[in-house]
Hints:
This protein is 38% helix and 15% strand. By secondary structure, the chain is of the alpha/beta class. The longest helix has 17 residues, at 113-129. The two termini are 25 Å apart.
Amino acid sequence: MKYLGDYHTHTVYSHGKGTVDMNVRRAAEIGLEEVAITDHGYRHTTYNVRRTDYKYMRRDVTDANAHYPVKVYLGLETNLHGRYGEIDVTEADIEDLDILLCGYHKLVYSPTVKEFFSFYVPTFFAPMFGTSDRRRAINTEAYIKAIEKHPIDVITHLEYTIDVDVAAVAQAAKEYGTFIELNGKKVSMTDEQVAAVVGTGVGIILNSDAHSPGRVGDFSVPQAVVDRLKIPPEQIVNLDKLPDFRLQKLKGGRK
C-alpha cells in the first residue's frame, strides 16, 4: 500500500524553507505521483502569499510540471476568517487555482470590524480562557458555511486552535465532496474525534503540511493514528489511488 500524493506543502512564497522546484524534486525522489503547492492565503498577517507573487508561483509550477514525472497542482491554504464561512480568496482567485485548501489560523486580518469582534477576537482567546457551547456552535457553523459556499477540496488540521463539532463539519464535507485532512505535523483531534469523523464516511486525506522539502511525503504522524484506530484503507483518498477533487470536477475533471 502506498500514498500517491501529498496535497499540502509550503514554500518560500509563504513561510516554507524550500522552493517549488525543491518540493517537487523531493516528491519525485520518493515516488509520489502528485504534489500540491499550497502556501498560506492572502490575509495572514505574517506569512501570507502576496497576490503579486502568484504569477511567479504559476510559472514555477508550470516549469516543474515540464521537468518532473509528478503532477504538480498550484493551490492555496486559505484562511477561515468569518463566522459565516468567509475565506480569503475571491471567485476570480479560485478560477486560477488547481486545488483549494482551507483551515483556521491565528493572526489573520478580518475584513470588517464586526468580524474582528464577533469571530477573530473570541476565537483567538478561547484556547487561553476556555470555550463554550455557543462558541463551538459558531465555529462549527463557520466551517460548514465555508464548505457550502466555496469549492473547498480539503479542510486542513481540523480542531487546531479552534473548537468545533468535528462530526458535524465532516458530515457537511461528505455531502459536498470535501475531504478532511489528517495533518503531518500534528493531528489536533483526539482519537475519539477522529473516530467520529471517520464514522461519517467522509473521505480522509493524509498530507504532510511540509514546510521544508525533506518533509514532503512524510505521513508518519497521521499514519500512527490510522494504524491505532484501524481507519479503513478504502476511506483514505490518497492511499493506492488519486483523489477526485471537488474543484477539479467543477472544472471538468483531471487534466
